[in-house]
User: Which sequence fits this backbone?
């Protein structure tokens, strides 16, 4: 057998979609209690880690955000650093060289950076042969020290996310064929912190009735737990599209987002929702094939100038699916009930 770390350890870091996002009032610590049904998507970054030839951790990024060398603030290196803090003395946490192939649009409401961090944490532990040494509760705390969206990616499947992002309950994936998702990411930036600030300001930047998203979110979590057929999820898209409490805030920060979302819904003939703080917009389809066909048609319409875009640069259009499982599951959890 070879020594740990000589062969690269490889993992996929999927994107996430918030099917619902209900936000409670601002807490004394400045964060908000969430109630969000989150699902992983097939669109994923690919991360590999192996023993580094040099003395420190390193990161090489290729794809959408590269090629470039990563610095210590990169979420992959923060994930490795968090893993190193957790391993005990008996384990040699040697330096790691990470390689990230970026496919998920950046700063888009799809959780790409958070997923990279969670995957880096899990892969580093695996590379050091320390997978068993760090339990679920500690993994979640380490993930949370990097960001509120990071713990979700440790679950390895759909989950109800509560608290600041650290209370996780695994949910069953929609039953049946994988559901198609068309992602449309306008070329505009929405800062999550600013979106939460706009939410706190109230008025038009807060939802008209905070109960709407909460009731939908509670209901969807119950339905998924009980085993919701994928086609029924698609049939609920209209209600889900109204169940994101950060949508008014994102629209206030980027006013063109509201009209783009409306013209997109008209063009697709389907409800269009927003993932997280945006700007990525989504539509659900019964299959990947239907999402791909809609994506091709949409790209033609965008190229032909048929839709008013929020920016001179065209939005990124990508067809994908909701996935049931991915590979970074930790060792827990009593909470995993699927
Ligand atoms: O935890 P993270 O740094 O990813 O959060 C980004 C921003 O989102 C925070 O600064 C905070 O304003 C907001 N946030 C929040 N409540 C949460 C999660 C994030 O207010 N549960």
Assistant:
């Amino acid at each position: 057998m070879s020594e740990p770390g000589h062969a690269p350890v490889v993992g996929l870091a999927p994107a996430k979609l918030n099917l619902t996002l209900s936000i409670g009032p601002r807490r004394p610590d400045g964060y908000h209690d969430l109630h969000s049904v989150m699902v992983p998507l097939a669109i994923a970054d690919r991360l590999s880690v192996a023993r580094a030839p040099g003395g420190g951790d390193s990161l090489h990024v290729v794809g959408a955000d590269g090629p470039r060398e990563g610095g210590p603030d990169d979420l992959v290196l923060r994930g490795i650093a968090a893993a190193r803090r957790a391993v005990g003395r008996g384990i040699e946490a040697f330096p790691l060289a990470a390689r990230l192939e970026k496919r998920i649009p950046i700063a888009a409401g799809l959780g790409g950076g958070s997923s990279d961090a969670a995957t880096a944490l899990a892969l580093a532990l695996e590379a050091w042969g320390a997978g068993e040494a760090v339990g679920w509760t500690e993994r979640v705390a380490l993930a949370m020290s990097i960001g509120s969206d990071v713990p979700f990616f440790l679950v390895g499947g759909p989950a109800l996310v509560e608290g600041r992002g650290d209370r996780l309950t695994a949910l069953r994936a929609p039953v049946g064929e994988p559901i198609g998702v068309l992602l449309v990411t306008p070329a505009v930036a929405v800062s999550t912190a600013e979106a939460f600030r706009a939410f706190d300001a109230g008025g038009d930047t807060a939802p008209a009735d905070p109960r709407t998203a909460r009731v939908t979110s509670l209901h969807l979590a119950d339905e998924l737990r009980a085993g919701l057929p994928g086609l029924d999820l698609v049939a609920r898209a209209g209600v889900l599209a109204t169940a994101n409490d950060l949508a008014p805030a994102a629209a206030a920060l980027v006013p063109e987002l509201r009209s783009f979302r409306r013209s997109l819904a008209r063009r697709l003939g389907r409800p269009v929702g927003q993932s997280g703080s945006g700007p990525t917009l989504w539509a659900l389809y019964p299959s990947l094939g239907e999402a791909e066909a809609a994506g091709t048609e949409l790209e033609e319409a965008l190229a032909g100038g048929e839709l008013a875009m929020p920016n001179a640069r065209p939005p990124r259009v990508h067809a994908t699916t909701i996935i049931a499982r991915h590979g970074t599951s930790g060792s827990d959890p009593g909470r995993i009930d699927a």
